[in-house]
Design goal:
The chain is built from 23 helices and 19 strands. The protein is of the alpha+beta class and 825 residues long.
Length: 825
């Protein structure tokens, strides 16, 4: 077998390079995922240790003890226990704040007394008006030591409380991470909530696990309803909470890695299939001089294993380099404390074993074919390959059954809103399509070739159609690799567009107007803002609302014409019918709300000089606070000067641009005038999240797409060895070098077209069904959206990839001379 293996390796040469590159890319993706998840897990572990540092025990009081005074009393009782050095109550608060001239929110807690802190600048707070910030939070708002942050309450009823930044802490994560003294917490404008009691044991008992367990039992007797954790348990609890993120990252990385490995397996199977076909004479000679079928098979499988081992080793190195790069990027742009990437034994073993097993398995069927080589085939002329068999009926029948069952299951999952059922159905259905591809793809390529020949009148497309009949297996396997990439990319693209459109329709139902302000003085300031694409003024009047219970409240009654409202509204019929009204959600707040969500309340609207209006009102969250929207033609003489301005925000506006519009409204009309940009902000935020997820998914799919393109190029390159006589004969019959090159490139383009047609159809179907299976019908309706612009880019990129992949093989085959091609080797 060793002699046969050496012979195979010598004859394979550079032909194996692309297959090795395919497995290297796939293994690199898997190794990168494993190393990044390992670094992420170590980062989370170090953060958990940092949070628990300095504390022997933690008593969780949040959500159980609502009264801070009661929690303070408990902390005092714990502090009097034997062996306890201190028991500090940690309170937290959350409130809006002016952060160096920028609006934001401040999440504040008391700085633990025994927490080991590393100050990158300044020192700990010592007075009520001092605050320390995490480096991450300070960097986000360009704050430094000496700056002032001013916190206020949500209602804006109190004067802001200023805090001077006296220090920056490194190693503390979380948006809005800030710490003050107990006195500073007392001055915080919003109510502070008791979060936990940090317990530190005295002397040698500090850090002693046995002493911690004894103290845990004593505290548990004082407050049996509370959760008391030792230092070790604190870390374990944190890691358990955070492990979900690591598991999700692991699942995502390995899931996309499995796709890349599967595509690489198809490429390797095709590579060895073509290699075996090109070695038929050599293998037949080996059989003639005594080599057994078993030796031939073992040598082919061993060749695959060696290729897999070499490709996997390169993949491990590539994965390590990629992980180092991503880790550096994570520390530079996301988390300074992100753990350094470390090469683990598990990543190396998984990479080497996975790549070797995949290539060995992929070479199995070609090895069986090689073992069936007859010694008599040595007498057949070199490079003349017999036509492959016809359509495999059993395989096609199994594929058709699986495709029908799987795609039917996907439809059922979409109707039943079951994501797990949808995933199972999609995998089954797509497997069926791949099995049936041997019957579908060659017939489709042949049909397209004949159609193109009829349209252009050229012979090259007709020759491509003939080749599709001659080598259907090679054609189907190559197209299948490309089909996987196209289907996945189209699925994600259509799914993202469908989710975006569905969310837009749902938001339009709940928030038909993007932004509104209870004033008409903002038109001039907003007209110069590119994010604002339209505005309309509604007439209004200050009035009083009275409920049936006798409660009264000042309101702004507004109305307008349906034609004017439709110029900015996201849906039709925004104005209520006669006798009905819409109230701002502010009427739901307070101890005695006017109405509950989803219900109506009968209210009376009155203003001097007008007849009172009795209407059935329901809440609408998109109106500015204190607004009541009535039907046009209500009988009141409303004035534009006392009305509102409604705005239409650009669909392409980002969340930052929407916030800028909101800031402009506040600057123009003042903080006391109600305004809202909630609808536009929600729409922009959802859009940015969907676009980000789509970008991440497409990046993750890049490995599979690269492997698929390598497969197309490799198969076409290997086919050059099979088709030298064909090319020589065509050259002898008058076909030019350019014609031979067009033969290869046309075949590649037609394979890409078939992959686009089949993969595009499946992708649109899977994209709609995926969103439908994830969203319950009572939560949001699903509306299919086909982003033709993005699909056009996918089509262009796929066709370009096919042309580029065929360039080198086409040039090589085009250089075949008639005499050299017809000669025997």
């Amino acid at each position: 077998m060793n002699t046969i293996l050496r012979t195979n390796l010598r004859s394979g040469g550079t032909r194996l390079f692309a297959a090795g590159a395919a497995i290297a890319v796939a293994v690199a993706f898997v190794v990168t995922s494993l190393l990044m998840v390992d670094a992420f897990s170590r980062t989370m572990e170090s953060q958990a240790e940092a949070e628990a540092a300095g504390a022997d025990l933690m008593v969780s009081v949040g959500g159980v003890i609502e009264d801070p005074d009661e929690a303070e009393e408990l902390a005092g009782e714990v502090g009097e226990l034997d062996g306890v050095a201190s028991a500090q109550l940690i309170r937290t608060g959350f409130a809006p704040a002016d952060l160096g001239g920028r609006d934001g929110y401040l999440s504040v807690s008391e700085l633990p007394e025994h927490l080991p802190t590393e100050f990158s600048a300044g020192n700990a707070p010592r007075a009520a008006g001092e605050i320390v910030l995490s480096e991450q939070f300070a960097s986000a708002y360009a704050l430094s030591v000496g700056d002032t942050v001013t916190s206020s309450d949500f209602d804006g009823d109190t004067t802001g409380v200023p805090y001077t930044v006296v220090g920056l802490i490194s190693g503390v994560q979380g948006a809005g991470a800030a710490f003050v003294t107990a006195e500073g917490m007392d001055a915080f404008p919003e109510e502070a909530y008791a979060d936990s009691v940090r317990v530190v044991l005295a002397g040698d008992l500090h850090g002693d696990p046995a002493a911690q367990r004894i103290a845990q039992e004593q505290i548990q007797q004082l407050a049996p309803e509370l959760e008391v954790l030792t230092h070790e348990q604190i870390v374990e609890a944190w890691l358990e909470d955070l492990s979900g993120s690591g598991d999700i990252l692991m699942s995502i990385g390995l899931g996309f890695g499995a796709i890349a490995v599967f595509v690489a397996g198809l490429v390797i199977t095709n590579t060895f299939g073509v290699l075996v076909a090109s070695r038929m004479s050599t293998l037949a000679l080996l059989r003639a001089i005594g080599a057994t079928a078993r030796q031939i098979k073992q040598a082919t499988i061993a060749e695959g294993a060696l290729l897999g081992l070499a490709g996997s080793a390169v993949g491990v190195l590539l994965g390590l380099g990629a992980a180092y790069g991503l880790g550096a990027a994570a520390r530079g742009f996301w988390l300074e404390e992100f753990a350094a990437v470390q090469l683990t034994g598990a990543a190396v073993v998984v990479g080497l074993v996975l790549g070797t097993l995949v290539t060995s398995a992929a070479s199995l069927f070609p090895a069986l074919r090689a073992g069936r080589t007859s010694p008599m085939q040595a007498l057949r002329p070199v490079d003349v390959a017999p036509a492959e068999g016809g359509v495999p009926r059993v395989r096609t029948a199994i594929g058709a059954v699986l495709a029908v069952l799987g795609l039917g299951t996907v439809v059922a999952a979409a109707l039943l809103h079951s994501s797990l059922l949808g995933v199972a159905g999609a995998m089954t259905g797509f497997l069926g399509v791949l099995l049936a591809a041997r019957a579908i793809v060659p017939a489709a390529v042949r049909g397209l070739g004949l159609l193109l020949a009829r349209i252009t009148g050229g012979e090259v497309p007709r020759l491509v159609a003939q080749n599709a009949r001659q080598t259907p297996g090679r054609l189907a396997t190559t197209t299948s690799a490309l089909l996987i990439g196209v289907t996945l990319v189209v699925t994600m693209t259509v799914g993202a567009a469908t989710a975006q459109r569905s969310l837009d329709k749902d938001l339009a139902e709940r928030y038909p107007v993007d932004a509104a302000v209870a004033s008409t003085e903002s038109d001039a300031a907003l007209s110069a803002d590119d994010a604002v694409t339209g505005s309309v003024t509604l007439a209004g009047e200050q009035a009083e609302l009275a409920t049936e219970d006798g409660e009264t409240a000042p309101v702004q009654v507004v109305s307008g014409s349906a034609e004017d409202v439709e110029t900015v509204a996201r849906r039709a019929e925004v104005l209520p019918e006669s006798g009905k009204a819409l109230m701002a959600s502010s009427f739901y707040e307070g101890e005695q709300p006017v109405a509950a969500w989803g219900e109506t309340a009968r209210v009376t609207l009155s203003t001097p000089g007008e007849e009172s209006l009795q209407v059935e009102a329901e809440l609408a969250g998109w109106l500015p606070a204190g607004t009541v929207l009535v039907a046009s033609g209500s009988g009141w003489d409303l004035e534009e000067a006392a009305g509102q301005t409604w705005l239409r925000i650009s669909d392409a506006a980002s969340a930052d641009e929407v916030m800028r519009v909101g800031s402009t409204l506040t600057d123009v009309v003042g903080e006391q005038t109600p305004s809202t940009v909630e609808a536009a902000l929600s729409r922009a935020s959802f859009s940015e999240v969907i676009d980000t997820v789509l970008l991440v998914v497409l990046v993750l799919l890049a490995a599979s797409v690269v492997v698929a393109v390598i497969g197309v190029s490799n198969t076409l390159a290997l086919s050059v060895f099979e088709r030298r006589r064909e090319a020589a004969l065509l050259r002898a019959l008058g076909l030019t070098r350019g014609g031979v090159r067009r033969l290869v490139s046309t075949e590649a383009v037609l394979m890409a077209v078939v992959a686009l047609l089949l993969g595009g159809g499946l992708g649109v179907f899977f994209g709609w069904a995926g969103v439908s299976s994830l969203v319950a019908e009572d939560v949001m309706g699903v509306a299919l959206a086909v982003p033709w612009g993005r699909l056009g880019l996918i089509v262009g990129a796929t066709l370009l990839a096919a042309v580029v992949a065929s360039a080198i093989p086409a040039r090589a085959l085009g250089r075949t001379e008639p005499a050299a091609g017809l000669s025997r080797e």
